[in-house]
Design goal:
The structure holds two protein chains of two kinds. By secondary structure, chain A is an all-alpha fold. In chain A, helix 1 runs antiparallel to helix 2, helix 2 packs antiparallel against helix 4 and helix 4 runs antiparallel to helix 5. Chain A starts with a helix and ends in a 5-residue tail after the last helix. Chain B is mainly α. Chain B has two domains: 147 residues; 105 residues, Cytochrome Bc1 Complex, Chain D, domain 2 (Orthogonal Bundle), CATH 1.10.760. In chain B, the strands form two sheets. In chain B, strands 1-2-3 form a three-stranded antiparallel sheet, with no helix packed on it. In chain B, strands 4-5 form a two-stranded antiparallel ribbon. In chain B, helix 11 packs across helix 13. The longest helix of chain B has 19 residues. The relative contact order of chain B is 0.13. The chains are: A mainly alpha, B mainly alpha. Chains A and B meet through helix 1 and helix 5 of A and strand 5 and helix 12 of B.
């Protein structure tokens, strides 16, 4: 009997730490994903500022990353990952989930439209900023201040 | 013993009079308010509006029109919840019945038309350094915006913060009403940037640590601290925190929200960017010039990661 309780307690402790680990992994994974967005944005950002020569293939690759990230990201904010691992996600991600997911969907759709419409430097300058405006638009509501 | 009581009584009375005097809501006098009656320049007022970041707090929540200033946003703080008021030109629900002088007393002295103190959640601690002409221009601009119906609810504060008169004591300690004067030791651009940051933009209101009474710790102004609106950490923006950031990096962040690493700022800083992107580029560059000149100061220690 006592051994049974002991085993159950060890199992429960083990399971809950596994669960905590999984939560931390999910948070780390989405943090990596967001870093990937910034990484992908860097070259086109420098091109916008004229610090780097225009490169259509690089821009298209970045837009592809944006679109793929937008599809994957919403699944990385499951219930139970609201806190821990230094997450900067605000509680509104979960309390306003429909809007949060709609914003990701719009960002993904915008990136796909831009993939089709950006064919040269002029169309890049005209269309790229509109896509990345989504970053600030979403961070305003869903991300805490961080440095 | 017979002598002791009257003395104590007199002392008490003198103390009460002193408290009453210190906590009185002091408004602008006629010399300070000279020039407030002029008509106001609408386009200059628009710059004051964007530089001052009025829309960030006063725009009606849940919609995107920065010109609909119906208020209603709830600011949760350690002192209780502040409800941002309606400052649209609606005659009864907003500030449609205000004179430019009323606006000047609100922004430069933190006193309402009824003669009551405002709480410093409204950053008049910064606006108090502004030129009176800018208030006249801002009034002209605010009057040009759409009237929004709906009076906002009152604040929900804990005792004793719920007693407005006591804000007078806070003001006596923390409110400095000196107008920023041009510093000839610096460039025109630097001076413009300083005015925009320290009299209108109120950057230091969030980018500085606060003491237990909610006053800015002057020795660590601009050195960052915990987010007064809740979770997160506001960065140190003195040279200590900015490090290798260039002036162009800073002005880019103010205009687009992107850091040199193409990270995108979050929370209320994203809203600040919406104000800043509406300013002339030269003004963003001026702010960057001024902020870059802030000497390196260590901020409060950040809590460990959790």
């Amino acid at each position: 009997m006592i051994r049974g309780i002991f085993v159950a307690a060890v199992l429960a402790a083990g399971l809950s730490s596994v669960a905590a680990l999984a939560q931390n992994n999910t948070i780390a994974e989405r943090q990596q994903l967001m870093k990937g967005l910034a990484q992908a944005g860097r070259a086109p950002g420098a091109m916008m500022k004229g610090e780097q020569a225009f490169d259509l293939a690089a821009v298209q690759a970045s837009l592809k990353t944006f679109a793929e990230t937008a599809k994957k990201a919403p699944s990385l904010f499951p219930a139970g990952t609201e806190t821990g691992n230094d997450t900067a996600a605000l509680p509104k991600v979960w309390s306003d989930k429909a809007d949060f997911e709609a914003k990701w969907a719009k960002f993904g759709a915008d990136a796909e439209v831009a993939q089709a419409s950006i064919k040269d430097e002029a169309s890049f300058k005209a269309n790229f900023t509109g896509v990345v405006r989504a970053c600030g638009g979403c961070h305003e509501t869903y991300r805490a201040k961080k440095n | 013993m017979r002598k002791f009581f009257p003395d104590l009584f007199l002392l008490l009375m003198a103390g009460l009079v002193a408290v009453w005097w210190v906590t009185r809501p002091a408004t602008l006098n006629t010399t300070e308010a000279v020039g407030i009656d002029y008509a106001g320049d609408l386009s200059k007022g628009g710059v004051v509006f964007n530089a001052g970041g009025c829309a960030s707090c006063h725009m009606t929540p849940g919609q995107t029109d920065r010109k609909k200033l119906g208020g209603g946003l709830a600011l949760k703080t350690d002192f209780g919840t502040f409800i941002v008021p309606n400052i649209s030109p609606h005659k009864t629900d907003g500030i449609g019945a205000w004179s430019a002088m009323d606006l000047a007393n609100a922004m430069l002295r933190g006193v309402s038309p009824k003669g009551e103190h405002y709480y410093p959640a409204f950053p008049y601690t910064t606006y108090a350094h502004a030129n009176i002409d800018d208030i006249g221009d801002l009034m002209a601009y605010l009057r040009s915006l759409p009237a929004v119906e709906g009076k906002t609810a009152g604040h929900d504060l804990k005792f004793p913060f719920s007693m407005r008169r006591f804000v007078g004591i806070w003001k006596a300690i923390f409110l400095n009403t000196t107008t920023i004067v041009y510093d000839p030791a610096h460039t025109e651009e630097w001076n413009r940037g300083r005015y925009l940051a320290d009299a209108l933009g109120h950057c230091a209101e969030c980018h500085s640590p606060r003491n237990a009474l909610g006053g800015i710790v002057e020795a660590q102004r601009y050195a960052g601290g915990p987010d007064p609106e809740g979770r997160g950490w506001v960065p140190n923006i003195t040279a200590k925190g900015l490090g290798t950031w260039s002036k162009a990096d800073l002005s880019e962040l103010l205009g687009t929200g992107f850091t040199p690493d193409f990270d995108s700022v979050g929370s209320s800083m994203a809203s600040v960017v919406k104000n800043m992107e509406a300013l002339p580029k030269s003004d963003r560059e001026a702010i960057a010039e001024y902020i870059k000149s802030l000497s390196a100061i260590d901020g409060p220690p950040k809590p460990p990661k959790k």
